Every structure is written in structure tokens, then in C-alpha cells.
Amino acid sequence: MKIKLFLFCICLLSILVSACSNQEKESIPVITIMTHDSFSISKGVVSGFEEKFHAKLVILKSGDAGEALNKAILSKNNPLGDIFYGVDNTFLSRAIEADMFISYAPAQLDRVDDSLKLDPENRLVPVDFGDVCLNYDIKWFKENNKKPPVELADLIKDEYRGLTVVENPATSSPGLSFLLTTIAEFGQNGYIDYWKKLKANDVLITNGWKQAYWGKFTAASEGDRPIVVSYASSPAAEVFYSKEKLDKAPTGVVIDNGSAFRQIEFAGILKGTSNLELAKKTMDFILSEKFQEDIPLQMFVFPANNKALLPDVFKKHAEITEEPASLDSRLINTQRDHWIREWTEQIL
User: Does residue 282 have a pLDDT over 80?
Assistant: First the structure.
């Protein structure tokens, strides 16, 4: 009888401990950042956030940038997260028109350059940026006694026939940025003619960046294309990930003469968040030096906070253009789908 009573007490104690443990877990607030598949953050930054705010940080990856935004819009009445990270300036107006973000100016927003701030109501605030541009294989051009391109118009010249690989703007974020670069450079009435000449010059079009860069680009694969659409920070990534110590990047970039497109990423608090105050603190954290200084070597783009320190590999090998291609975000929003359809019909 005593043994049964003892066992009963043990079971009861176990149940009570488990219940208390579950209650403790349930009491920890959770903040969910909905984002695209390319988002990355180091474990140390995550643990630093969780220790500081005594909360659980969940990263909800939801497809590429366009797909993730579409999911957020479709679920705006019952949001999948508290914060959305990764709206870029090609989709900014669409995101704002969906009326699903709360206006909030995070701490240290004053440390973000005004040129990056495209929403005066701070529903979406800049968190990082980078330039989409042509990258070329320095060794290939040297060995073949050719000069690398210096502007977009070079790609349709005979000496560059069959050398370029680009991404489909309907399925790729850098592909769309490159399409917008050509529209800014050649105009809405001239960009299709440019693309037809590019196609006649044997340009290769892939569905995405990985397929182009890691599958066709001579500097990163067994491919046969020494020119690829990538980022002006890609040379820094080549040096950082190289098995050998490199003093110079093996790739160069074309960023002058309006040949690069400034891609700015934004984040904002989703309406319907169940923890608004923690969401605000999270936005503060995203613009803090701790988070911002983690961005370059995680996603190989530049932090929006101009007080954030850059790693040496970025200082030496990542580039920023002084004259990015320019298109108004409202024009992009109204014409983007039309341009993609027109490009698909005329070029593919």
C-alpha cells in the first residue's frame, strides 16, 4: 500500500512539474519574422536577441522575395508573422497599397541615409541594400586577350557574343532588377529592342541566380559564360569563401554608366501582430549595430545603418555604385507586370 502511495505521489509530482514547465514555456513571448528564403542571421545574433528580450525568435522563410510578399498579402487578415523582412524597392508600392503595415520609426532610423528611405510614413523602413550589376571573370578575359564590358551597350557587340548569362525577370529578383536597369538605360520604348539584340548575340537566360552563377559562370563553375548578372558585393563573397587566401577578387563588376540597379530591402510590422510592443523592439533590434553588422557576411549586402562597421573583406572587395539606374517606385509598381509580360512574350 505504501509503495502504491509512493508511486502515486511520484506520478503526481511529475505531472505538476511538467505542467509548470509547459506554463513557463507558454509564458515566453514569440516573435515571428516572415521573410524570403535568402534571409540569413547568425546564431549568436538570435541568441543575443532572445536573451535581451526574454523571447523566442522564429524565422519563417516563405519562398523568394515576390512569393513571400504575395503570401503575406493573401494572409494579411490573419498574418503569418509579426514582422515582414525583405520587401525590396521593386515591390515597395505593392506592399504599401496592401495596407498591411503599421507605421513605426525604429531607434537609429536617423542613421539610415535619406536616399534609402522611400516610405515617408515608415510603414516599411530600409534594412539593407546592394547593387545588381554585371560580374565578369577577370582571368577568362585576360587569358582570351579581351577587354571586359564597361556598360550595358557592350553586351550586344559582336566580340561579346555568347559570353553572357542573365536571369529571367519573371522568376528571379536580380533578373527583375537587371530588366529594370535596361529600362532605365534604354527607355520604355527602347528596352525590348536592346533585349532582342542581346538575344541575337546569344545571351543565355536561366530561371534563377544559382543556376546562372554556380551553373554557367566561368569563375564559379565549369560553365562557359564569363559574364553574369549578380551583385556588386559578389567579389567579396568569392574572396571570403575561397579555399585559398586571395589578395584580389577573381571577379570584377560593371557599376558605372547607369549599369547597376540599387536594390533596397525593407522591413515592417504587420498589422494584426499579437505582440506590438515586442514587434517594435524587434524593429529597433534589426536596425541596431549588432544585427546590422551581421548582415554583410550573412547575406552579402550592405547594412542600412551607416554607423554599422563593415568587415574587411567588404571594405576591400565589395562595391557600391555612385550612379545607380533610377526608376520611380510608383512607375515600377504600375508597369512591372506589364514589362515582365512584354519581355516574356517578346524575348522568351
Answer: yes
* Phi, psi values for residue 341, rounded to 5°: -65, -45
Q: Same topology for domains 12-129+264-309 and 130-261+320-347, yes or no?
A: yes
In Å, how far are 10, 14, 60, 225, 269 from 2, measured between CA atoms? Answer: 12, 18, 52, 81, 58
Three-state DSSP at 60 gives strand
CB 167, CB 175: distance < 8 Å: yes
At the second CATH level, the architecture of 130-261+320-347 is: 3-Layer(aba) Sandwich (3.40)
- In whole angstroms, give the CA distance from residue 152 to residue 97: 33
The reported pLDDT for the residue numbered 17 is: 47
Phi-psi region of 150 (alpha: psi -120 to 50; beta: other; left: phi over 0): alpha
Domain layout of the chain by residue ranges: 12-129+264-309, 130-261+320-347
Specify which residues 81 forms β-bridges with.
Answer: none
Kindly state the cell numbers that stand for 230: 549578380
> How many C-beta atoms lie closer than 10 Å to residue 233's C-beta?
23
CATH number among 3.40.50.880, 3.40.190.10, 3.40.80.10, 3.20.20.140, domain 12-129+264-309: 3.40.190.10
The residue count for the chain: 348
Q: What is the pLDDT of residue 38?
A: 87
User: From CA 178, how far away is CA 231, in angstroms rounded?
Assistant: 10
Residue with cell 555612385: 322
Q: Which long-range contacts does 60-63 make (Cβ < 8 Å, 24+ apart)?
A: 60/32, 60/33, 60/34, 60/35, 61/35, 61/36, 61/37, 62/34, 62/35, 62/36, 62/37, 63/36, 63/37
Q: Determine what percent of the chain is predicted with pLDDT higher than 90.
A: 82
How many C-beta atoms surround the C-beta of residue 303 within 10 A? 25
Residue pLDDT, tens place only, 302-321: 999 999 999 999 999 999 99
Residues near 72 by beta carbon (within 8 Å), at least 6 away in sequence? 34, 62, 79, 80, 81, 84, 95, 98, 100, 270
pLDDT of the residue at 330: 83
